[in-house]
């Protein structure tokens, strides 16, 4: 009898273990953060494994979502509908579709989700030392412009220590003539900071090697630079030149965490563009090799959920995937209409031999009722074939450039804040009235 009881106990324990065991497979973790890196939970989330149906996904903690891709399967998708804060009724979603061999830890940025406190930053400015006549001022909440060589200014910043302002001076001809980074601001309440340029507050310069050989026929080239301060201040535009070689502006005195984007691009007919961004802590002489553009015959048919061609550049050794930015504007006074920003990244491994992609219909899932425009609304898209020297795991799990919490647009092709990153893409953009 004792042996029978032992057998029964063992059987019961095995049944209990089977009921409570973690599903076998590969765990995928998604971390969701606002513009300041604080974890936030989305309005809704959904996931897909293989080619199965999309399912609702509940958070496993604040700003954390996990799911398991079953053994024998590698492809998955996940969509986060961000908390949009300033525009709570609109949709701001990010979709990643990748494989477990490429990435299992992902980061989704929700710039409108910032729910912390801000304080006024104000004072006076003086650009006379660099012959400036207008000021562009960047903080971690956005960008503002002020006219005149001197005058008052007012902006805002999130509360905290080590906050920064980036001040850019332009002259009467619109030339960029000065830059000043105001660092180590401890902002706990409204603060007065006077910005007085000196003769030393001028740009350093770097060199762009000639990239004319990679400019497609009939395309108009340009190059320039941006600055991303260490604290994540709104990306500061430093200059742009319509040429294929020359000098670019950069901040002369940097600290660890500061980064520059140095870019080259060429725009052509039919909404086509090619570009490259080099992310550098200490940029100097930069070289560019623009990829081939989409063929002129490439089109995207207008639909509520469009189908995009994704066969261009897939044989390039640096091909990492495709990105889609899809936006639509709600019709005023129309019930159910809302504005939306939906950005999607499809990895090389997920794409495989597929040559077209249709955005998934998530409208039956909780929190995604607005994930499809209404007939008559205005929609636009940017499709990008994406090349990089970084792998998918880095691209999908790194902080992108900050655009301030007041901007809802985080282009899916913005490179990560990782020194040494090169990103190249071929873009196709268009717009249509939703049928």
UniProtKB/TrEMBL annotation:
Record has Iron as a keyword: no
InterPro entries: Ig-like_fold (IPR013783), Invasin/intimin_cell_adhesion (IPR008964)
Signal peptide segment: 1-17
Keyword terms: Signal
Taxonomic superkingdom: Bacteria
Gene3D superfamilies (UniProt xref): Immunoglobulins
Protein name: Carboxypeptidase regulatory-like domain protein
């Amino acid at each position: 009898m004792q042996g029978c009881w032992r057998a029964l106990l063992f059987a019961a324990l095995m049944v209990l273990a089977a009921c409570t065991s973690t599903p076998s497979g590969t765990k995928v973790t998604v971390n969701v953060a606002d513009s300041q890196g604080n974890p936030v939970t989305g309005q809704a989330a959904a996931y897909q494994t293989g080619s199965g149906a999309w399912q609702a996904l509940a958070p496993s903690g604040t700003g954390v979502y996990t799911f398991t891709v079953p053994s024998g399967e590698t492809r998955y998708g996940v969509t986060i509908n961000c908390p949009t804060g300033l525009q709570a009724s609109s949709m701001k979603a990010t979709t990643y579709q990748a494989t477990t061999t490429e990435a299992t830890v992902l980061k989704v940025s929700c710039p409108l989700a910032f729910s912390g406190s801000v304080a006024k930053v104000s004072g006076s400015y003086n650009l006379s030392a660099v012959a400036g006549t207008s000021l562009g001022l960047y903080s971690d909440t956005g960008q503002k412009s002020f006219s005149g060589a001197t005058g008052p200014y007012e902006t805002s910043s999130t509360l905290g220590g080590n906050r920064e302002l980036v001040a850019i001076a332009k002259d009467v001809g619109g030339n960029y003539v000065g830059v000043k980074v105001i660092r180590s601001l401890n902002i706990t309440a409204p603060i007065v900071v006077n910005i007085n340029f000196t003769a030393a507050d001028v740009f350093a310069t770097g060199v762009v090697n000639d990239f004319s050989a990679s400019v497609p026929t009939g395309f108009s080239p340009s190059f320039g630079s941006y600055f991303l301060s260490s604290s994540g201040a709104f990306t500061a535009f430093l200059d742009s030149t319509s040429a294929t070689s020359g000098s670019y502006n950069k901040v002369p005195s940097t600290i660890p965490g500061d980064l520059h984007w140095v870019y080259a691009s060429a725009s052509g007919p039919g909404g086509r563009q090619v570009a490259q961004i080099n992310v550098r802590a200490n940029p100097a002489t930069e070289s560019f090799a623009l990829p081939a553009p989409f063929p002129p015959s490439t089109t995207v048919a207008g639909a509520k959920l469009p189908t995009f061609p994704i066969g261009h550049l897939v044989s390039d050794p640096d091909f990492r995937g495709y990105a889609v930015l899809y936006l639509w504007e709600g019709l005023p006074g129309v019930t159910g209409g809302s504005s939306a920003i939906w950005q999607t990244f499809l990895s090389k491994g997920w794409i495989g031999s597929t040559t077209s992609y249709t955005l998934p219909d998530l409208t039956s899932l909780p929190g995604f009722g607005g994930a499809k425009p209404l007939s008559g609304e205005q929609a636009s898209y940017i499709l990008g074939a994406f090349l990089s020297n970084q792998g998918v795991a880095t691209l999908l799990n790194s902080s992108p450039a900050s655009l301030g919490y007041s901007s809802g647009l985080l282009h899916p092709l913005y490179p990560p804040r990782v020194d040494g990153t090169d990103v190249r893409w071929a873009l196709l953009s268009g717009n249509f009235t939703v049928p």
